[in-house]
Amino acid sequence: MAQEGTEVVEETEQMIDKMEPENLISSVDSKEMRAVVLTGFGGINKLKVTKKPMPEPQEGEVKIRVKACGLNFLDLMVRQGNIDNPPKTPLVPGFECSGIVEAMGGNTKGFEIGDRVMAFVNYNAWAEVVCTPLDLVYKIPDNMTFPEAAAFSMNFVAAYMMLFEVANLREGMSVLVHSAGGGVGQAVAQLCSTVPNVTVFGTASPFKHEAIKHSVTHLFDRNIDYVPEVKKISPEGVDIVLDCLCGENTGKGLALLKPMGTYILYGSSNMVTGETRSFFSFAKSWWQVEKVNPIKLYEENKVMAGFSFLNLLFKQGGWRQVKTAVQKLLSLYEQKKIKPIVDSLWALEEVKEAMQRIHDRGNIGKLILDVEKSPTPLMANDSTETSEAGEEDEEHEGDTDNKERIPFIQ
Ligand SMILES: NC(=O)c1ccc[n+]([C@@H]2O[C@H](COP(=O)([O-])OP(=O)(O)OC[C@H]3O[C@@H](n4cnc5c(N)ncnc54)[C@H](OP(=O)(O)O)[C@@H]3O)[C@@H](O)[C@H]2O)c1
């Protein structure tokens, strides 16, 4: 992994707001770089932009000058420490980025300085520069923008592997997906459209329905009980349930499966009920899942599966399977059959606001941290609405308490 010298965590958050835009991206020759650092598990105020020593590539690693980073729901869970076996803080979050190859360690055949790439990183992606093993780096097509590439990797690979490798999606099947307007949800919808006659049932917040109705066959308000609605349309149920809301949805999903159908648990978004970790929602979710009975699965001819991309790639050595999936997905992109949907672009310094947008369920598609973007000037915030993330008792650093940034919506 990348080697770093003595850590220089210099607080720059206040300073950055006052800097000229050119200064924000002028560290190309520097021995330091800007990065988002999570100082401890908790709310969004645990995130800061700091300077870190420039990483240098080790044997088998590629050094990438980052242009864009993907912000996933998983990053909210990491921030809260709401994941299995979290690493120690301080840490630089982020699992995926796109950019330009700047240098290479030994044994890195196949890449050249200047190559446009996207890459997975085992943390540390939200920085100006990352070093990551060659096997996790993929060249991107000339017509793919850096934000598109950063929006592509995790969402589409997870969706692809679940649909085609775990559930064996085929012509004429039906799929139920939650959070259909989100990053993974839209990747699932697009990949389903590459197979003839696939029916997609989706749940999403109502304000998203107009924007995503073309991609989902039957859309339901996330607040209603979707089970009777699906049964009205398809009394026999569905072939594949993709559940990122583990808990009571697990029982509902299994009940909706046709014989020989596959239920895949791949997330627990519903455990995020506020800005900080809630043990109550964690316990409630797992209590529901614990009730699943394998003998019932056998009697009813149903398949129950789980999928964790991060574990597959970083803990279980699944890089070859991931690489094959990436190649197939890039081919679908070049054939114009799929296209990542970028919800909005944010500067590194705007990471808190970006995360808040997900807490507030505001995104359609993927949020991107654009490393070269300057923060939008702070505006006075006259909103009296309380966000879903709720208030937090922690200190509020800086002068941002009553100010907000207007996001750059694509
Ligand atoms: N297992 C894996 O390998 C893997 C890989 C990638 C992602 N995931 C999981 O897939 C799910 C989607 O990930 P994503 O990155 O594409 O995120 P996303 O769907 O873009 O996440 C944001 C959306 O999730 C919905 N949501 C559901 N519960 C929420 C909550 N408690 N707080 C805020 N929003 C909530 C909201 O949409 P609506 O209001 O419209 O429902 C929101 O707009 C997450 O559970 C994530 O952990 C798993």
From TrEMBL:
Residues 375-410 are annotated as: Disordered. Residues 388-398 have a biased composition (Acidic residues). Residues 399-410 have a biased composition (Basic and acidic residues). SMART domains: PKS_ER. The keyword Oxidoreductase applies. It comes from the Eukaryota. It holds the Pfam family ADH_zinc_N_2. Residues 42-369 form the Enoyl reductase (ER) domain. Keywords: Oxidoreductase. GO terms for molecular function: oxidoreductase activity; zinc ion binding. PANTHER family: SYNAPTIC VESICLE MEMBRANE PROTEIN VAT-1 HOMOLOG-LIKE. Belongs to the zinc-containing alcohol dehydrogenase family. Quinone oxidoreductase subfamily. This is Synaptic vesicle membrane protein VAT-1 homolog-like. It comes from Triplophysa rosa.
